[in-house]
Amino acid sequence: MNEQDWDEVATTFDEAILDVTAHDRLGRIRKCVQRYGGKGRTAADIGCGVGRTLDLIANDFSTVFATDISQECLGMAHKAMAHHHHIQYIHSDLVQHHGLPYPVDLVVCINVVLHASLEKREAMLRHLCNGVKDGGHLLLVVPALESALYASHRLVRLNRHSGMSPKTAQRKALREMSDLDLGIVLVDGVPTKHHLKEELHDLLCAEGLQVRSTQKIEYPWSYVLEAPPEEMDGPTPWNWIVVAEKPVKRPGARNSRAAT
Amino acid sequence: MNERDWDEVAEYFEAEIFNVPDNDTKGLIRHWVQRLAAPRGAATDLGCGVGRTLPMLAEHFGTVYAVDVSSRCLAIAAGSAADHSNVQYVHADLSAQGNAYPATDLVLCINTLLNASLEVRGPLFDRTCRSVKRGGHLVLVVPSLNSALLTAYRHLQWNLREGMAPADAQREAAMEGSGLEHGIVRIDGVPTKHYLREELEVQLADRHFAIETLEKLEYPWTTEFAEPPDWMKAPYPWDWFVVARRVR
Q1: Above 80 in pLDDT, residue A57?
Q2: Of B146, B181, B183, the CB nearest to A175
Q3: What dihedral do alpha carbons A120, A124, A127, A133 form, nearest 10°?
Q4: Which of A60, A204, B102, B115 gives 20 to 30 Å between its CA and that of B6?
């Protein structure tokens, strides 16, 4: 999706886009924000949309940057967060750059690295990691490929319980997936990158970050299946939430090695 | 694969079929067999093949049932475990028959639940679970779908590092065939069921098993690529290793 697409979504954002922060029942995002927040600390919500997570971040950080590709979304975020005077709004496309005036202590990025294009996604991830200052942290939420596949399994099982033959149950559970082996799943017709846990670790490691934790943010079945039975049990579908740290570069390390 | 296919493989089993116990570098299988050992109890090696794990089971259990669909594989197994008089050999096709052996304290099942057909695999899974006594344990090794996808990702990375254009790199790394959303991956052209962690959790809970451990049984990258490059390190490919207790 490009800037125009996101501008068009802005007015219906709450109905169209899953509210990850609202579904974070275990408060994983809140706990991370509180852990790395404090007086004098800086944070950025990259791809902030209409600003759903900004209130949470603004309560714990002295300076907050809210960036988004959509001017419309930024306008709505600004309006919703008018009571916070320490948020700066920046119109920026993460594929091109992170848009921040300087790297910050905590970069929050929720379901933004979704591009099906490998080149664009690599650029996004690189810019995100560049936006974290040395010793700072990245909080990244992305769709889980494992979850998309697991939902297919549960749908087959549901179909079997309703009396379908194994063949029919599987055929009816076929979802639109293109390049599934590359993690591309169609979400409302839009090719959307889903990540494996191990893939995420590897990508962040390649950008020089150290993964501190990887957990699930779980959602109700109704977000992935049409009319799931009320008694449908867990595990429920999920996104990955990863917290990674950019190590502090040791000053003079290269020089001292050269001297030996 | 049917009985005839396995009979044909028997002679070349060591060369053709990946040796899980030999590649279990952390010793997960041995550790759990020792931990659950019952010198007066019984164990079953379901899909024992040429009997790679039979001596280990025979040392820790009073009676061992070695069950396989291939009579040729069973004959080779009987030869290699000839020193162990407490092993009984059972020729049975788990996908087509009722159990021709009693439920036991421990059932070891290594890469047997692989059939791509849900019609075949469902009853096979049921019979495997029914082979465990109430209160007994199932020790299960199955291919990991997560790992198969990680391998596809590594393949893509390798292509990119070799200088291929992203579109070419992705096309070249694409996995063969359809059915991936149901966990079907082709291994040497054979559609083979691969599992997700959460799928196993649900399947076992459905059959009244409580999982005691569900972890990775890791292998080197040489099991996936003929000559993997030096940079290709952890995370490594893996099978899922599960120990679950039958609660009712």
Answers
A1: yes
A2: B181
A3: -160
A4: B102
